[in-house]
Amino acid sequence: MSKFGAHMGTTELITELTYLTGFGNQHSSEAVAGALPIGRNSPQRAPHGLYAELLSGSAFTAPRAANQRTWLYRRRPSVVVGGYAPLAHAGWKTGAAQGEHAPPDPLRWGPWLAATEGDFVDGLRSYAVNGEPGLGGMAALAYAATRDMGRRALVNADAEMLIVPQQGRLRLTTELGRLDVAPGMIALVPRGLAFKVDLLDGSARGYVCENHGAAFRLPELGPIGSNGLANPRDFEAPVAWFDGAAGEYEVVKRYGGRLWRATQGHSPFNVVAWHGNLAPYRWDTARFMAINTVSFDHPDPSIFTVLTSPSDTPGWANVDFVIFPPRWMVAEDTFRPPWYHRNVMSEFMGLVLGQYDAKPEGFKPGGASLHNSYVPHGPDSEAFDKASGAHLQPHKLDHTLAFMFETRWPLLPTAWALSDAPLETSYADCWQGLKDDFNA
Ligand SMILES: O=C(O)Cc1cc(O)ccc1O
Ligand SMILES: [Fe+2]
């Protein structure tokens, strides 16, 4: 039984894997007793004949609160890999240079079904991109997989990867150990860490945010105080685990907005012990302590921020990860769904489960929408009529999970998103029924 008890509801999990808890903690883990050096990081000879290797997520001189690094004690250092050659890919795009012109229309896609068999890497498709790998920005992607990655690893040197499963449980094997991730949970893989995705249910589908900017962190809580929203202790990191099986491995590397591949004669998942505060995590959205009005009005969606990647301008996120979880609606004399709005920030949304209150029928689980910078949007006519006529009682929005990647830079849809993906041709029609009801 996992640490997430059955009482949490959305994600009855999975296996007996064990985890270390606490976002950003200084974790320590060893798969073999004595593999972790005590009192120093680089002894003349590391224990058990292992190699010491440092993985940093921040400049050495970053302020202590933002400093991230982990020491790995492994059977061979990751420099032992063959030469890289370019690898073609059907639809993984990153950076504004790989996007198309963004039309000033709202865009929405139905659930995507991959036409071909493939693993997690094969099944990545970018909906929308901005920024530039190495400098900042993000990409919003879909994934669909019908095969394990098996003896294939991915190293994304361009971006941290936030994975949002929508169908099918995943087993992530990372250099630091294994994580089981079900729909309703998310996984966060640090930039530059090797990992692979195997399928616990035979197939899987979901979303990915590639974050080219500052690493995701928990948002400040301000007047909320010292508890609430996503709580640090609910983030689970893996314990050290290594792959003993000999044989060839393919390493796929995202580097400079391009994909590369190399082969090596051993598994990259050969880390016997590690310690540090740069680690992959899983987190169950059912653990989100939602805060909202208990009087009136609809608060800004920033109240639902799980993780934020700040930019260099205070308050203007490179990307925020925001969820719309099950919650009670109690506002009095209030139009409860989102208001109509035009925002400077750009909003990419996905739906894991159920219905989203602003678009009860039109937005499908597995679908996606893009309301770009200054593109007007809000509840469709159906949602408006329902909410403005509703008898306002406490009401539970249940069996629902929508999310948003919100970024300060406009998102450019990709060629795939505009042509091959299930783009709706008349999305904007969902607002045409909003009549002029003015009566003077
Ligand atoms: O557009 C959306 O559906 C996302 C959203 C939700 C909300 O409650 C307020 C603003 C906002 O952009
Ligand atoms: Fe919005």
Task: Tag the structure with descriptive keywords.
binds 2-(3,6-dihydroxyphenyl)acetic acid, homogentisate 1,2-dioxygenase activity, globular, 7-stranded antiparallel β-sheet, 2 helices, 2 domains, binds fe (ii) ion, mainly beta, HgmA_N, Jelly Rolls
Protein described:
There is one protein chain. With 440 residues, the chain is mostly beta strands. It folds into 2 domains: 6-98 and 116-284, Jelly Rolls, CATH 2.60.120; 286-422, Sandwich (Jelly Rolls), CATH 2.60.120.10. 3% of the residues lie in helices and 33% in strands. The chain has a 7-stranded antiparallel beta sheet with strand order 20-13-10-15-8-7-28. It has a 6-stranded antiparallel beta sheet with strand order 6-25-24-27-22-21, with no helix packed on it. A 4-stranded antiparallel beta sheet has the order 2-19-4-3, with no helix packed on it. Strand 21 and strand 22 form a beta hairpin. The longest helix is centred in the last third of the chain and has 9 residues, at 381-389. The protein is globular. Belongs to the homogentisate dioxygenase family. It is an enzyme of class 1 (oxidoreductase).
